[in-house]
Structures are given as structure tokens and as C-alpha cells.
Amino acid sequence: MTSSVGKGWTASLLYTIKDPKNLIISSEDAVVIHDKYPKAKHHYLVLPKADIPDIFHLNQSHLPLLEELFLLAQNVIEAKRCQLDDFKIGFHAQPSMQRLHLHVISKDFVSDCLKTKKHWASFNTKLFLYYQDAYALIKAGDRIQRLNREIVQQLYDSPLECNQCKFVAKNIPDLKRHLLDHWTQKQ
Ligand code: AMP
Ligand code: ZN
């Protein structure tokens, strides 16, 4: 069997999913794990067992698998006694780790691991590809294309707009204080 197992940190998800104790949920075709550097109170990854390197390899034959990934995303939210509306489910348009992985992340973005503008932009600009949009694209017979470098840079440089109100933060510490206020008010 051929495998896309590579060297170095970009392959670390492949090692993580090999250890059964890391699996929150496991089905015949996919698994759910904790994101090791969670960017919110809840952050999970759903990965296929099949050796699919990334979103750019998806085609119409993967539609049932995508549905399975989404089902497991909903299952983990339910298992954690959370609400679907409080989560974002989708892919990074510019992924860095090997093996296709669906992010399941709570919208609070309160986490010590959220440290950079890139972290924020990867979930809160067009660098985040919602599951439904990816699915519709593949269903229409299209392939997901890489964004060009200038567009990616523009998105990384986007203003730090709060995802819950109209506030625009001056910098990441300012945004993090603001997000913590939202979260505290909800408790
Ligand atoms: P991306 O490739 O940008 O979609 O994101 C990869 C995600 O994997 C990031 O959110 C990382 O925090 C996470 N991550 C990196 N290494 C590991 C690991 N060994 N186990 C679980 N999650 C990881
Ligand atoms: Zn706000």
C-alpha cells in the first residue's frame, strides 16, 4: 500500500491517529482527535482513515466520506454536550499538516494557543473553508484550488474584527482580552 507518510512535523497527525488512546471517536472510515494546540475552548480534528493527503485531492468519489466526516463532527459536539451553532466546521484553505482534516472549533476562540494574526485569520477569514462550501464545490464537479500567495498574504493581514460584534482590535493581545470578555459574559 502506498502512503503519504512524510518526514517531520507535517506528518505528526498521522502518528497521533495511530494511537487508539488519542481517538475520541472512531468509525469504520474516520476518527476524531483533540487538536494538540487548541485555538478555542473546544477544538477537534476529524480525519479519514484513508490516505487522502489534503483538500486539493478531493473529488466527487469522496462525497460519502465528506458526509461521514461531517457526521463525526456533529457527533463529537453532541458527545461534549455542546451546541452545533456554537461551532465552526471546515477546512483550512491553506493547510500545513498532512492527511485531510476537518476542523471542529468552538466560536469563543479563548485559548492560550491562539497567539498570532495568522491563527486568527486561518479561522476567521476566507482562509477558512466551511464544510458546506467545500462539499458544494466538490458536488458540482469542481476541485478545491490553492489560493494564490498575494491573496493569502492579504487575508493574513486582514483587520482583527471580532467574530461576535463590530469591535476591531488593535493587535492580538487586545483581541484576546475582548474575546475573553465575551466568553466571561456568557458563563
Ligand atoms: P492546518 O494544517 O492548518 O489545517 O492545521 C493543523 C492543525 O493540527 C493545527 O490546528 C494544529 O494545532 C494541529 N496539530 C498539530 N500537530 C498535532 C498533533 N500532533 N496532534 C493533533 N493536532 C495537531
Ligand atoms: Zn466582540
Query: What number is the mean pLDDT?
Result: 96
Strand content: 15-25%
Count of strand segments: 8
Q: In terms of structural class, how would the helical and strand content be classed?
A: alpha+beta
Element-by-element helix/strand order: HEEEHEEHEHHEEH
Strands ordered across the widest β-sheet: 1-2-3-5-4-6
Low-confidence stretches: none
User: What is the percent of helical residues?
Assistant: 25-40%
Tell me about the largest β-sheet: 6 strands, antiparallel
Shape: globular
Compute the CA-based radius of gyration: 17 Å
- Ions, cofactors and other bound molecules: adenosine monophosphate, zinc ion
End-to-end Cα distance, whole Å, is 50 Å
Number of helices: 6
Could you please describe the fold and organization of this structure?
This protein has 187 residues and is α+β, with helices and mostly antiparallel strands. Helices cover 33% and strands 17% of the residues. It is built from 6 helices and 8 strands; from the N terminus they run H-E-E-E-H-E-E-H-E-H-H-E-E-H. A 6-stranded antiparallel β-sheet has the order 1-2-3-5-4-6. The mean pLDDT is 96.
